[in-house]
UniProtKB/TrEMBL annotation:
Pfam families: Epimerase. This is Nucleoside-diphosphate-sugar epimerase. SUPFAM superfamilies: NAD(P)-binding Rossmann-fold domains. Residues 12-224 form the NAD-dependent epimerase/dehydratase domain. The lineage of its organism: Bacteria, Pseudomonadati, Pseudomonadota, Betaproteobacteria, Burkholderiales. It comes from the Bacteria. It comes from Paraburkholderia silvatlantica. InterPro entries: Epimerase_deHydtase, NAD(P)-bd_dom_sf, NAD(P)-dependent_oxidoreduct.
């Protein structure tokens, strides 16, 4: 596709471009004619040899590196988080500070995939953009402060967009409940673990839909409020069983015979002192104890609808990407 000359108006810096949401946003930006730049220690990953992304060697914890990478960019997508929930308290806020400083230096807008960690049960069962943010956890308090800093920066000319969604899942999303707690990547589906209690609703979001929503809002950034927050309804699992049932349904179509078993919270608690990821997940267990739904009315008013892939289609693509459907459903290797 001939997209014309690259200008500042169609150049974006994606921080976290090797992660699940960052890589999908980068892919969709490129498909829409944007030139995408990414920052990573060590430069381009080996699997990116055939990618058109411009990879720069640098660390998001270095303000100089982020400001340098942002030169000539109209948008910075801040999709970076410490892997496995490690060192949140030490690095999450310095990273957003560097992104905001870079955005101020070059006149770019900042786009953030938000989390539900910001909210406590006092706002359940339905989260709206103006719901009070009174988190129960350390990670939630950090995310509240992160968005406070974005809002403060917007008062000094740095435009920001926050797109908040439920638990992510998708073909390239390895750091997720879907891939770490419900199925086992790299093996045909045999056991499907159910983290929540049947009857307790839960919000899920298919990452390509989230990326499409971010892209459409990026295109409208000049007409949005200086600090704009939008919630996605995603896939609302009204009784807590629809996602695991869809996994089983898709797996059976591929000749597999999965069984549903409850996620062992007791085992996770027992070994969590020795496994950082499990320890951090245990802190978020309250999100599985009560129904949690996101109201997308503001997003629908802005876009006219919410990008939405049918559940079975989204689940099949995710299982294929995780190589969980056997030889016939194996995803092709990335270039």
């Amino acid at each position: 596709m001939n997209v014309g000359p690259i200008t500042r108006q169609n150049r974006a810096l994606v921080l976290g471009a090797s992660g699940g949401i960052g890589s999908e946003v980068a892919r969709q930006l490129q498909g829409a004619g944007w030139q995408v730049r990414a920052l990573r220690r060590g430069g381009a990953p080996a699997m990116a040899a055939a990618s058109a992304i411009e990879w720069l060697d640098g660390d998001v914890l270095s303000r100089e590196a982020v400001v340098h990478a942002a030169q000539g960019c109209a948008v910075i997508v801040h999709a970076v988080n410490p892997p496995g929930y490690r060192r949140w308290a030490q690095v999450v806020l310095p990273m957003i500070d560097n992104t905001l400083a870079a955005a101020a230096a070059v006149g770019a807008a900042v786009v953030l995939p938000g989390t539900v960690y910001n909210f406590g049960p006092d706002t359940f069962p339905v989260l709206r953009e103006d719901s009070p943010q009174q988190p129960l956890t350390r990670k939630g308090a950090i995310r509240v402060e992160l968005e406070r800093r974005m809002r403060a920066a917007s008062e000094h000319g740095v435009r920001s967009i926050v797109v908040r969604a439920g638990d992510f899942f998708g073909p390239l999303v390895g750091n997720s409940w879907f891939a770490q707690g419900i199925v086992k990547p790299g093996e045909p589906v045999q056991i499907v673990r159910q983290p929540g209690t049947r009857g307790v609703g839960h919000a899920w979001s298919y990452v390509p839909d989230v990326a499409r929503t971010m892209l459409e809002l990026i295109e409208r950034r000049e007409t949005l409020p200086a600090f704009a927050t939008f919630h996605m309804a995603g896939h609302w699992d009204a009784d807590g069983s629809q996602l695991v049932d869809a996994i089983c349904r898709v797996a059976r179509r591929h000749g597999l015979k999965p069984q549903i078993k409850p996620f062992s919270w007791a085992l996770a608690r027992a070994i969590s002192p020795f496994v950082t990821t499990l320890r951090e997940l245990m802190e978020m267990r309250y999100l599985w104890s009560e129904p949690l739904q996101l109201d997308n009315a503001r997003l629908v008013r802005e876009l006219g609808r919410e990008p939405h892939t049918p559940l079975d289609e989204a689940v099949e693509a995710t299982l294929m990407g995780l190589n969980c459907l056997g030889a016939e459903g194996r995803a092709p290797k990335a270039a």
